[in-house]
Design brief:
Layout (H helix, E strand, L loop, with lengths): L9 E8 L10 E6 L2 E7 L12 E5 L2 E4 L1 E3 L11 H8 L4 H6 L4 H10 L2 H17 L2 E7 L6 H17 L3 E9 L10 H18 L5 E6 L6 H13 L4 E5 L7 H7 L4 E4 L5 H10 L2 E4 L1 H6 L8 H7 L3 E3 L13 H10 L5 H7 L2 H6 L16 E4 L6 H4 L6 E6 L2 E4 L1
Parallel strand pairs: 1-4, 1-5, 6-7, 7-8, 8-9, 9-10, 10-11, 11-12, 12-13
Antiparallel strand pairs: 1-2, 2-3, 5-14, 14-15, 15-16
Helix pairs in contact: 4-5, 5-6, 6-7, 8-9, 12-13
The structure holds N-(iminomethyl)-L-glutamic acid and fe (iii) ion.
Length: about 400
């Protein structure tokens, strides 16, 4: 549609709707104007005289909120297929990291790359996600580990949001791994993160949230706490990579800071679940990493359900544990590998993902909500999780502007 028609009301009819939490029982019409959903109703309430000037967007299909990928490491240099081969021969992710490979391999390649090379490589990955229905994406730093290189990554992330049709939120993950320069001085590195990298990135408007890899191969609870305190002092929300390879208490810790989310959480225990439920901290499930590392420890889905912890689903797109940029595949894996229902998986990439990035207005279909929407050429919302099939997107809207179809 020509952009000149974009200020007009758009009208869809006879849709199956997943509203961000549930599939609505009847078929609906939906109208969008001025960037928002302005009206919707069941088909028998449609009065054509109310929509005479609207652009007819057709009928049928499924409408969902635009997908939100709330945990990615999309900006990085190089690739790690060599490490993939090592793991196939029996080496574990943790062993490779202890030998100086893993994240640190990507740190070297990312430091060597300039902003434009990082931008071009990440734009390709992000374009695949957009074509698969993503309208919002969170992007972390964490492969620079110096002031200049962390800022470089975050600037690239911001520019992706300015130049591609997608909302980008940025997360500072300077506490992702211990850089070689600080090999014997983890506390010294945490001091650099808290006293220099975080304030400088924040002053440049590059930080929407702060993350820490709280794990025995990364940072301790005490070191993570210092980063969270520095973030809260700047009024920035926090999140954590927690309980991925072992139980280290990172989820309970991030909940103490009313964190947005605790992510991975394969080894999460009852205390962590109770703390997250109490704080409203989202549990972010990363089935791509679970699959790639051939993890056998399942996140405690049932216990989280019982405790009422909101569960999100994300790609964790990164060159090590999840070299995957197809969000709808994550819906499928969340069901087949982690045993979510298709509705839970969909809520995990819409309503609950919005909560995990601190944007609770997004990820919902309701009158007045921002019109970040997808219309799919399928018959029922569950099909999105059931079949692994690119090319089902019919329309995508970002703030009411048609960016696909
Ligand atoms: O979310 N666990 C730590 N960080 C990433 C992996 C990063 C990498 O291996 O490059 C994750 O799995
Ligand atoms: Fe991650």
């Amino acid at each position: 549609m020509p952009m000149s028609e974009q200020s007009k009301r758009l009208l869809w009819r006879d849709l199956a709707i997943f509203d961000g939490l549930t599939t609505l029982p009847e078929r609906h019409w939906v109208a969008v104007e001025d960037g928002r959903i302005c009206a919707l109703g069941t088909m028998q309430t449609l009065d054509p005289s109310q929509h005479r000037d609207a652009v007819d967007m057709g009928q049928g299909g499924v409408m969902t909120p635009g997908l939100i990928d709330c945990h990615t490491h999309l900006v990085f240099g190089g690739q790690r297929s060599d490490e993939f081969e090592l793991r196939l021969q029996g080496a574990s992710y943790e062993e490779i990291a202890r030998r100086g490979g893993g994240i640190l391999g990507t740190v070297t390649a990312t430091r060597e790359a300039d902003e434009s090379a990082l931008f071009d490589a990440a734009a390709k990955r992000l374009t695949s996600m957009i074509e698969d229905g993503v309208t919002s994406v969170e992007i972390k730093s964490g492969y620079g580990l110096t002031l200049a290189d962390e800022l470089k990554m975050l600037r690239v992330a911001r520019r992706l949001g300015e130049q591609l049709p997608v909302r980008v939120t940025t997360t500072l993950l300077a506490a992702h791994a211990l850089p070689p320069e600080y090999a014997d001085d983890a506390d010294g590195y945490i001091e650099l993160v808290c006293d220099q990298i975080l304030p400088a990135a924040h002053a440049e408007g590059l930080v929407d949230a702060v993350d820490v890899f709280c794990e025995r191969i990364a940072f301790s609870s005490e070191q993570s706490r210092r980063v969270f305190e520095a973030a809260r002092a700047l009024d920035l929300p926090v999140k954590a990579h927690a309980e991925q390879l072992s139980l280290s208490g990172g989820a309970a810790l991030v909940a103490q800071f009313r964190g947005l989310s605790a992510d991975h959480i394969e080894y999460l225990d009852d205390d962590g679940i109770a703390a997250m439920a109490d704080a409203g901290t989202v549990g972010v499930l990363l089935p791509g990493a679970f699959y790639t590392l051939r993890e056998t420890q399942h996140p405690p889905i049932d216990a989280m359900r019982r405790a009422g912890v909101a569960m999100a689903v994300a790609s964790d797109a990164n060159p090590g544990t999840s070299p995957i940029v197809l969000p709808t595949l994550m819906l499928n894996m969340a069901c087949t590998l982690l045993r979510l229902t298709p509705q839970e998986a969909l809520a995990g990439m819409t309503r609950h993902a919005a909560q995990a990035i601190g944007q609770p207005d997004l990820g919902r279909i309701a009158v007045g909500a921002p019109a970040d929407l997808c219309v799919w050429n399928i018959d029922s919302p569950a099909e999105l999780a059931y079949a692994v099939q690119p090319g089902r997107l019919k329309h995508r809207l970002l703030e009411g502007v048609l960016t696909h179809g």
